[in-house]
């Protein structure tokens, strides 16, 4: 291992694999190490089903026989949907990783309001027929959406008199006469903010997020979200293949003893008795406990169901967002559902995930509003994990650390 690398990547989480793929494509010599013997790190997909039972319930735990063949299950530990017109999809197309993956559109996006689940309107017809808003509110909302589509930060005639540097998003809602419910659903189900802090900030970022939602929706029609067949774990593997094609070296099941510095700058990674030299390190927080701080916790419940989620038009895949105000919280609760149409479960079985940011000493009680929407649950696996972020930007040490995955879907 006396070779010198441009970069060493530690951990095979999605972010780390994307990075090693991009670094390899740009001609860098990359070594990729993971202490696990599988790809995906925290964001792995577990298959067969036995793996999930062993992880949460111990080595001797076995799934019930009626759950079908274990290998027909691919259960994401941290499921994430992709925005059809978002950065990651553009990156997948640009790098050609789409060669190794197939995607399917998620069937519906829903929002929780006043104890009920409503479909997030996907087009003008749905916007006019939805019971999320009253008749006059629909007209005001439509005007607002037209303005969002036409807004151009560089062209003041599209600002409608609202200076992008001084006007807050709350003032934009007021200008269009949108009520609190509509603002709630717009900010949380379209712009996908996790709390209401954004309302007090200048509006362009929020407008850009709402527009990304509309543009993504326009691509496939049912919802703005895509999801890879066989689970999210396919993504890190796709980028790992890309890296390997361009000369990246992979070592799974290899422990990392320490990072080696000279004058505060990274010079290598020690594993066993050997040191691999490098100019940069990219890693997840678990490899550098001294360079990260804990910023909170996330609770996730993986729920196996033998039915679709009630009140979602029998959707085989969907997302439901419970805005924080609806259940007296500071942060939203997220629910995602995938099934056999996504090649993640046998026919007739469904995988739902309920997640949120922990706010109290009793995290499980915090996701009850989400669990109640699922109907009868065949099996539930709950984990609470710490959230870390780097304490500096890494420029001085050349050690660049990703943040822990948030609870959003």
TrEMBL record:
Organism domain of life: Eukaryota
A Gene Ontology cellular-component term: cytoplasm
Function: Regulates the GDP/GTP exchange reaction of most RAB proteins by inhibiting the dissociation of GDP from them, and the subsequent binding of GTP.
Gene Ontology MF terms in the entry: GTPase activator activity; Rab GDP-dissociation inhibitor activity
Annotated Pfam families: GDI
Name under which the protein is recorded: Rab GDP dissociation inhibitor
Family: Belongs to the Rab GDI family.
Keywords, in A-Z order: Cytoplasm, GTPase activation
Record flagged with keyword Metal-binding: no
Gene3D superfamilies, per database record: FAD/NAD(P)-binding domain, Guanine Nucleotide Dissociation Inhibitor, domain 1, Guanine Nucleotide Dissociation Inhibitor, domain 2
